[in-house]
Amino acid sequence: MTGAGSASDILARLRETRPLAGRKVLILVENLPLPFDRRVWHESLTLHAAGAEVSVICPTGKGYERPYEEIEGIHIHRHPLPLDARGAAGYLLEYSAALWHQMRLALRIRRERGFDTIQACNPPDLLFLVALPFKWFHGTRFIFDHHDINPELYEAKFGKRGFFWKLMVWLERRTFRAAQVVISTNQSYRQIALTRGGKAPEDVFVVRSGPNLEKLRLMPPDPKWRNGRAHMVGYVGVMGDQEGIDLLLEAAREIVLDRGRDVQFVLVGGGPAMAELKQMTADLGLSDHVTFTGRAPDEELFSVLSSADVCVNPDRVNPMNDKSTMNKILEYMAFSKPIVQFDVTEGRYSAQGASLYARPNDTSDMAGRILSLIDDPERCAEMGRIGRERIETELSWAFQVEALIAAYVRVMEKQAQGGTRAAPRPGSAVRPPPAR
């Protein structure tokens, strides 16, 4: 690697300098278990290496059923949740259960180990309700780790605004107001923190969800994923209503049935829309051309990504997806895969020359661009090289560590100085070791 050095080198340096020595951190996550949630897992390991004691509260999930375990020094407390929510009643049930469990476990962790900082990772924008009592009565610091823009997410899911959209806006505003420091996943989210959130620039830090290249493993292509076909298109992500999988299936129909091309589509991930998407696949006559793996372990995920000729991101062009950085894009780039996606601001910023950009929500244009790459292996190789180089030199997790530590130094200094001290200059919290 160049620039930041490897992630393991930086963590080793953190263990030497221990800029967060003596700190006790509680991280709240509602939608994914750890260590499955890669972003929060990278954050947890980084904070631990910097000297902090880290506890995490998160839901259970397939393969992550234990209510408590310690992994690599991270204390993970898991709680059950209702099945994947659909509709307002389902979300109300899920979020109510989550808040109860999160508060219950937070009280337990405070008794057993204590914590001086809470980092809440949305969605939903309700977790500030868990943090506030500890902030008010115990002086606990509160950091908001902004993963999703929920008003835009609500509109993308339900196609309307109204009362619940206004509630999302209000909850977002309350979360920003409660937070002393905000961690944003990209520059678009940072602008939201500065404008809608009213945060001061020195209190908002961009920490991207970069992959840890040392944890990803390229594997020999496995022909089983191709199902005997000449070419393979890969997708990794949630099987939800707003992820645009229906658009991908329409593009697949044109590729396979209208244009008669010999292509297998392999879709990795689970989610609430899985049954409907499988039914749509059958209705389109594509059941033999589309493989749904469900939520897959890393070995299976790495095998799919290593085997694909082209990878896709079919997220619809809407305000939510335009401003959000999708982890799948960075993972595709880490595996040196050429990408096809619809043209969105943050997707283009991440991938740049590693991707082709179809016209907004135009499935025929997406189909054409997928085929143009399948038919041009040299271009695919060059795009894959561009993407991998971009990860190695700018977007991997190694380049996010400094900003994460700086956010924690800032919240500590704000409390110590009554919120008046300037943010630390970039590089003052931890300097990466020389590149190797």
UniProtKB/TrEMBL annotation:
Pfam families xrefs: Glyco_trans_1_4, Glyco_trans_4_4
Keywords, comma-separated and alphabetical: Transferase
Gene Ontology molecular functions: glycosyltransferase activity
Domain Glycosyltransferase subfamily 4-like N-terminal: 40-201
Keyword Hydrolase tagged: no
Matching InterPro entries: Glyco_trans_4-like_N
Renumbered residue ranges of the record's region Disordered: 417-436
Keyword Mitochondrion belongs to the record: no
Cross-referenced SUPFAM superfamilies: UDP-Glycosyltransferase/glycogen phosphorylase
Domain of life according to the entry: Bacteria
PANTHER family attached to this UniProt entry: BLR6297 PROTEIN, GLYCOSYLTRANSFERASE
Record-given protein name: Glycosyltransferase involved in cell wall biosynthesis
UniProt source species: Cereibacter azotoformans
